[in-house]
Amino acid sequence: MSENNPTETSYTALGFYHKISQLRADTWNALKRDLGILTRLDDENRAKNLIKSIDVKLTRLEIIEDYHAFPSKEDFRHLWTLFNRGEYALLDKVVKRLVRALISESYRRRHVDLSETDAGAEDMEALDALNQLRRGHPASNSSAQPYFELLIVDNLSNQEEEVVREAFHNMRRPEDRFVYDVVTVKSFEDALIAILVNPNIQACLIRYEFPYKSKYNLSALRNYLEGLSEKELEHQTEAERSILLSSMIHELRPEIDQFLVTSGDVEATASRDIQYFNRIFYRETDYIEQHHTILRAIDSRYRTPFFDALREYSKKPTGVFHAMPISRGKSVTRSHWAGHMIDFYGINIFLAETSATSGGLDSLLQPFGPIKKAQEYAARAFGARRSFFVTNGTSTANKIVVQALIKPKDIVLIDRDCHKSHHYGMVLAGAHVSYLDSYPLDDYSMYGAVPLRDIKKTLLDYKRAGQLHKVKMLLLTNCTFDGIVYNVRRVMEECLAIKPDLVFLWDEAWFAFAGFNPTYRPRTAMNTASTLRYRYRSESYREEYAAWKEEFDKLDPQDEATWLDQRLMPDPDQVRIRAYATHSTHKTLTSLRQGSMIHVWDQDFRQKVEASFHEAYMTHTSTSPNYQIVASLDVGRMQAEMEGFELVHAQVETALSLREQLYTHPLLQKYFRVLKNSDMVPAAYRESGVESYYDPVTGWNKMEEAWARDEFVVDPSRVTIAIGNTGVDGDTFKNEYLMNKYGIQINKTSRNTVLFMTNIGTTRGSIAYLLDVLIKLAKEFEYRLEDSSRPERKIIEQQVYSLNHDLPPLPDFSRFHDAFRPSADTPQGDIRTAYFLAYDEENTEYLRFDNGKLQAQMREGRDVVSASFVIPYPPGFPVLVPGQVISEEILDFLQALDVTEIHGYRPELGLVVFTEEALLNPSDD
């Protein structure tokens, strides 16, 4: 080790990056570059500066590598020895080998001895790197044993660490399904740092006694250790500290398998609350038992029950005498014309195509075998009580949940700008819909989310009207397409304080990945439901609630501010946790298109919902589901459990890198402005005061603070860029500039913004390509302005002004017409009656608003009522629903839109509206 202590520069760099894997890779490459230069350098002064730079980099890397199995601590001592002896040429060779091993990930497949410096060893690393390039990625070599790392927490000496590491190495056998290496740490804090910075860790063995404090002063744990007292921890017993560490590891990375090795009374320890340990070992337990137990635990997550069953089925010789000529590939392999399908897809996809539910397979509609097991594993992975696979998208998943829970005339509170499937689901269920308005972002032609205050006020209005018992569900989108994320826990807590049995449906179509990152996870529906359930069962909550209730009862219950201006707490004796989440697994995790899941955390599911849920599932699920989609959901779950933490972390890293360049590049800033937290979340909803997660001086150090406290936050992996200064609208920019010129695909635009979404498949290379394209486009806009004539410049300036300033205010939901309002005292509407009333043509007519005919009718005092959904793309949600009164604001908005795709609107005819006669008696009752 260096004679110098770790420098403040090292700590600053670690805190600044917020992207530890990128820092690790970049620093190793920079070290390799510096050593290469040093070995060829004759200038003594430059050499001294390089040696200092190398010292800093080695020091920085030693901190990071302390929490990784490769290079080992012994390997690093070898590097320091070479450095301190001034053997820079040899150090250069060793570092090159080490970097090649990291890039090729050859350390996952074989032992890399850095003390070997012969040509044969170097050739082996080069061959590994070449094989990686040929395969695309080492993981694509399916014959290789999957690799993971075992974290051992124990206050061991260097010699003891080597003994333990060697003991576990000696347990490994060629027939083992997995191969692993060992990481050892000495303290409570070091254990937490290790699982945060090292995604390879899949299992943790907590042994004997260990101190609390790390030797490093890193800020990564600041938010996670808040409220813990070092003095109290130092006086804890071995068992108490181990149990606390276990619970914190579970909070950060619940997928990690944990084991306890105790030197005390193992029976007494086993009787304590040790829910997060897979097993307890007494210190005399031999290594081979620990080895096999760890491998079995990993295997339980690695299994893919249905995918494995489908693979086995595809190998069986069968006689096909059922529907589907393509089954077993027969109709294709025998074809003289369709053989190119096999050339493109390969034979396995056809061998696995069947409509059979026996022979080792299963029925999605009534699972009893591998699909049932796969869904149980999905529930474990996503923290649900029950999970269900859906093979025709989250639109169907949403309708299943709504139909299972909602009876005709039940009132549902729903955000108006949610996905269209929810609106149609309300029609099918016969729900009485009470729309909630999200806060508008008029400058960017997009909506945010629904403020909690507005939700509470709506619930209180129903309570005053004596109709709160009719309110069944609150339906919200988390996170929105644009990346606005709710404080799910606070919404559920305060709403349950008003209505203790309220059901929550969280549409997390774009948020399936969030459960595999410790910052994101607390804002997911399943994590919140589980957290609240155990919180409300605790004695500490009862005491907290009693104290709160005593103060609350002193206030005037009739005063609206009593309920709206403070945080409410539900009664633990009345509250029921009932939460549902729908995930578009295919959107943010690995799955074939239309692969989705429904996750359930409902205390009343077995008693009240299971039968109706089954019927709703049968209603909307095909009797011939695509088994390839089911298998991909199974594999996607396994991948998320095994490497979701690593993949999501890398996704966020790439997004932060993109944002950082866009924040700091002068030319990019001129034409492309990244919307920050403060641009998308008004100050009233940012309790932390954090305006941007990024600071040019301190780096990415504010995200966790905002996510822990604020009512709404922005998912940084969704990068929304304002392009008004280009003078090009979002739709044109998407199609003509990004797609047609450079092949870059994006999903969403508004009039003056484009949304770039990173995902677990996004690479640093793809980010680099995007930045290169944006720089080229910025230069193009720059040259266009420079080369334009005065009239042309004037046109460009007008276009820029229009995109930045001529933006119509986004309209709120107007109201349902009285003909479709069951109650004059409350705002809900009977959307189903309105929808089906329009089926009879004599009840409707067309009115154009582009020629002023519709506006003239409104000026004469007529309530003009929409007879259909009207959905412009963008923004992609209904601005009008059946039964809604058309307002001047809505017409202004529609007229200002410069999009060509508006569902439910025919320009040559106009809007379809109800005749005045139809509104006199809309119901058949």
TrEMBL record:
The keyword Lyase applies. Keywords: Aminotransferase, Decarboxylase, Lyase, Pyridoxal phosphate, Transferase. Residues 304-527, 579-764 form the Orn/Lys/Arg decarboxylases family 1 pyridoxal-P attachment site domain. InterPro entries: LL-DAP_aminotransferase (IPR050881), Orn/Lys/Arg_deCO2ase_major_dom (IPR000310), Prn/Lys/Arg_de-COase_C (IPR008286), PyrdxlP-dep_Trfase (IPR015424), PyrdxlP-dep_Trfase_major (IPR015421). The keyword Transferase applies. GO terms for molecular function: carboxy-lyase activity; transaminase activity. Residues 858-899 form the Orn/Lys/Arg decarboxylase C-terminal domain. Its cofactor is pyridoxal 5'-phosphate. Belongs to the Orn/Lys/Arg decarboxylase class-I family. This is Arginine decarboxylase.
